[in-house]
Structures are given as C-alpha cells and as structure tokens.
Amino acid sequence: MNAPPTRTTPPPRPAPPAPPAPAVLPGDPLRPGASPTAAGVTFTVNSPTAHAMWLVLLDAAHGGILREIRFPEEYRTGDVFTMTVPGLDPRAVHYAFRAQHSPGTPPGPLLLDPYAKALAGGEHWGQRPAYRSKIVHDDFDWQDVPHPRIAPQDLVVYELHVRGFTRHPSAAVRHPGTFAGLREKIPYLRALGVNCVELMPVLEFDETDNPFTDPATGAPLPDYWGYNPVAFFAPKAAYAADPWGPGPVRELKELVRELHRAGIEVILDVVLNHTAEGDHRGPTLSLRALHDTAYYLHDHDGSYLNLTRTGNTVNANHPVTRALLLDCLRHWASEFRVDGFRFDMAPILTRGQDGRPLDNPPLLEAISHDPVLAHCKLIAEPFDASGLDLVGRFPSHGRWMEWNSRFQYAVRRFLTGTGDGGEELAHRMAGSPDLYGRRGHRASVNLLTSHDGFTLADWTSYDHPHNEANGERGEDGPRDNASWNAGCEGPSEDPAVLRLRSQQIRNALLLLLTAPGVPMLTAGDEFGRTQHGNNNAYSQDNATGWLDWTLADTNAHQLAFVRACLALRAAHPVLRRPARAPGDTPPGWPYPALSRHGELPWRGEDPAAEGLLALLAHHQDDDATTTADTVFLAANTRGHTRAVHPPPPPAGTRWHLFADTSAPPGQDINPPGAPPGPALAGPLTLAGHSVTVLVAHPAETGDERDL
Prior knowledge:
The chain has helices at 162-166, 179-184, 186-192, 247-261, 287-295, 319-335, 362-369, 405-416, 423-429, 433-436, 456-459, 495-514, 551-554, 556-571, and strands at residues 33-37, 40-46, 52-59, 65-70, 80-85, 93-100, 119-120, 132-134, 157-160, 196-199, 265-270, 340-343, 377-380, 400-404, 444-447, 518-522, 594-597, 612-619, 629-636, 642-644, 653-660, 684-686, 690-698. It is an alpha/beta fold. The strands form five sheets. It has an eight-stranded parallel barrel. Strands 4-3-6-8-7 form a five-stranded antiparallel β-sheet, with no helix packed on it. Strands 17-18-19-23-21 form a five-stranded antiparallel β-sheet, with helices on one face.
C-alpha cells in the first residue's frame, strides 16, 4: 500500500514592500511651530546652533516613535529648519524635534517645540509628565461674543487659582479644579461685582517639579501655583475637564467666551522671566538645546544668571527671544481673546544681555506698540527676586499698570498702627501721585493681598508666618507682613479679638474699594479665606490652598459688605477718577477734587490728627448741569473714639451714612439703591479702629436726624 503523500506547508508569502514614505515638501520659515495646511502639516523650528534637525513623529495614543524625518537642507532658510509632511492626521500624531550640533555626533534628546500650541503627556494632575508636542487645528465658535472693553479705571480685578478656586468639595461644581469648574462659578463672580478675573498661570507647567517634601509624611510636594513654565503657547492640560486631544484648548476658550458674555474680562498671569529648564542641573526640554545663549542670561564664566531664584533667567531682550515672547502674547490675545496680561517679575523683562536694566527695553517698547496687543491691559509686577524694585518707575509707554505694593503696605501699617500716622496712606488714597502723577490713577493696581503672603483673614490673625508644611523649615515666604493678630496668634474664641479682626478686615476692604486706581481682590478674601498662617502656599494642593466655600455662608455678612462696597464704587464715578485730581478748586466747585481734613475741616496736617485720615472726594461737570458726586471717608487707627467734623456737604445735599465698620455685622452698611439712612447732623463719632464713609444725597425735608 502506498503511503499518503506528505503535506507540506507552503512557504509564507513575502510581505508586500512598505509604500515609500511620502516625499516631504517645502515648508514656510515664517510660520514657526506646527501648522496644518491643505498640503499637509508644516513644521518650522529655529536653531542657529544646530548642524541638522530631525522631526520625530510620535503615536498619539502611547507616545511611541513612528518615524524620524530629517529636515532637508535645501528647505532650510538661514537658521530656520522647515518642511511640510503630507498626509498626516493631526489627531493621530504628536511630534518632537532632535538637534545635531556637529557633524558625526548623534542627534540629541527629544525636544518640545517652543511654539507648540498644546502638549500631551501631562493630562493627569500630579503624575510625572512625559511631554509631547501636539498639532492643533482649531475652528472654535466664538458665537460673536465681543470683548467687554472695560475702561481701566472701571476695572475690579479678582485674582484666582484655576484649580484651587473649585477643587474643594464645598465648591459644588461638576468638574472641580478645572476651567469648566470655574465656568460654573461665573454667576457668583457677577453677583460679587468684579468685572475682571486674573488667572494665575495657566500656561503648561509641571506640578511635580518641586524638590521639597512634606515634613509630616515625606511625600513629595507639588509646584501647585505653576510659576515654572514648560511651554509658552500651550494651556495647562490638567486644568481641563477633558484633557485629551483638543480639550484643553477648547475648554479654556469656552471659559473666556462665557466670561466675556457675562461682561467679565480675562487677564493671564504670564511667567516670561524663567522656564522649567532651570540651570545646568535641570532638564533639557527645548530652548536650552535650540539656542541656549539667546534664550537665557549667562554670567561671564558661562553659568546661568539666576536673577529669578529659579535657576535661570530669560534673556528677554535678545532679538530671538524677544520675537518668541512677543509671538506668545499675540497668540493668547488673538487665539484665546484674552484681555490682558499680568507679568510676573516684570523687571526681568527690562534687563539687557548683560543682566543690567535698560533705560528703554526693546521688548517692553515692542509690546507697548504692537497693534495686535493694542487693546490689552498690561500689568507689571514691578519687582523681581534680585531686589530690583521699579514701583512707579516701570517703563510704561503710556500703557502699563503696576501692582502698587506701596498701597498694600501703607494700608496695613496704618491700620495696625505701625506706620507714620497716615501720611503715607494719604498719598496712596490720593491715587499715589508721587508714583503715577503723569500716568494717572489707573496706572496703580491697588491691592491688600495677592497669592504671595497672608490672606486678608490671616493678616488679622497671625504676627508670624507658619510655613512648616512647605518643607523649607519655615524659612520661605515674605518676612515683612505688616500684620497684627489682635492679641492672639491664630484661631481665637475671644469675642473681643474676633470683633477687632472683623473690623480690621472691613477697614482694609473699605479703604481699598474707595481708593482711586484699579482695586484687586484675591479670591476668598471677600468671605474670610484662611491658609492657617501659611504665607507662601505655593506647594499646598490641599485644603490650605483651596477655597472653602462654606465660609461664604459662615461669613455672609462680610461677603455682603464687599458686594455693597463694589456697588458703591460702580455707582460713584468720583471713586473711579482716571486722572490725577487737580489740587486747586475748579471754578464753580465748592471743593477741590480731593481734600484732606482732620478732626476739624481743612486740618489734615494738624499733629492732633495723627492716626486719623479724613478725605473728601468731589466731582461735578464743568457746566454744573448734573448732580455733584461727593464722598467723605474717615479712618481712625487709634483705639479710642474721636469726634470728626466733616466739611458741610454741597448745597442742597446732606451727609448720609454708607458704612461704619464699628457697627455690628449686618448693620455696618447701607447698600447703594436702598433708601438713604438718617442724615448726619453734627460731628461724626468715629470709633476706635474703624472706618466710616458718608455720601452726599439730595436733601429732603425733615431728614436732619442725628446718626
């Protein structure tokens, strides 16, 4: 019997040859970054120190390398590498660059595109990121919502941290700690009376980049605030409820659009003075490998100048860096339609390539006169970590406003009795003419607190910082807080201490919100937010750094007080005067625009008036066809009661009480729009540690009753 034939497995068919990679096309040296076009995606990067450059295409799902394509030398223009890659799906591909700095050496590590409009790899808050550049193709619908275009003198700025504003469970939002969560709080912002939010850094940063640990647990502490940018053009992905794909870009634009719809402007706190690359010990992410000496300041020995105390200092006035920073601002103003910028450590932007301040820094001149930025508010933090203080001297070009720290400390020292008795505060309540005489009051952003330092409640509760949780042995944070704990360090159940603290908080708020200039509130100060004495909570991503919204109910009287003060400011143009008040009395006016008084009218310089500040603000049109607008403020920093005689009100009006901080909460204010209370007849009784505001209302028969 014959054996059956042996079955053999046919040899496998050879795989068909891979289709040749599509030939790359010329790019565009004038369009840095990644730009989708009809022909594909154009990639452009500038590096005069690179001999050759590669584009690395990465899988969008897991970050694996798909292809590496060398930029053709024939498409290079000057120091700019550019090409167009056809057939790319921006949703499926991320990218990076590699630079080769001399022939025969291997290309370097993967680099982020300095012009990347979004980054992948940092979607999960608190996890060490593995960043990749994303290609953004955006067709966002702005729904014809216009910019509010609020005049600077009418602004009320509200500084907030996007994550901390809604991260606490009491925020009761669907997406806590995100752009979407903040959007849910827009009705609260409108009811409060603010019309401009200043967002602490929302440009991509690595929150895991902090060398300190929690001394109680040993756990790593985060860089919660985000003053350490990784990318100048990309929004923080972990701040989005949908952090994937186009989610962060779309969600931040939705937030800006809906704030605008509510009549609220948006200012971004931008950190252009240093980057997360740090010094020679830090990571090489992008700029260091592309053109180190252009992007960073160096000492004579080649080491990094550390004028920011972060490891490096951006070389802001080098032409290459200047172009990058200006493009960054244009991007946020045009693509995200923000209304302005607050510049962290802005004096760094005045420094030349040797690190010394310039008389006319090219970057500031370019920002000030750039047509794309023409309607943007520009706010400088006018001091840096090296000690350069340009308050009142920041190069303004007729555009820039400044955080007025002189106002902050004048109010604090006056109210705590540690100042000069009122002379300094009199200058600040006059609009700081010694600082901003030619520029006008609107150049002064007046503040009591900011993210740096004590909260307003802690300013009245602590004489010393309590920063042990930051892991720096309590040695960090501002040393001079001009604070007073009212006799007890920290929490107290003493009714007298609590009453005095409440008065001091309302005293400070009333001075802030009746002063000429641009007032700035820090989120939560309106209802007594505390950081438990921590005056540098940059690493506290917890209940210390989050807003506890239950305090809005606990301290409802204080919240109502702030709302009423903001309503008063909105109702009285005399409190929002944009220009310096003339010293003389204009023809036909009963008073000058601003006058100082003491216990008796026109006796503000009397030595007996020490510890007392009494000011009268008056305005009327030159033709006197409209009702005059007149407000009188008296503040007493001494512990005893004083009798103050205000000047007589303008003819046909009577003085009526708006606020008296010595009155019990709930009885301390007469909101605008409510019927005026009793008219003042005789002297004003000014209690110790209190502030009183009177408003002139048209006289009515029989309204002269003693207050």
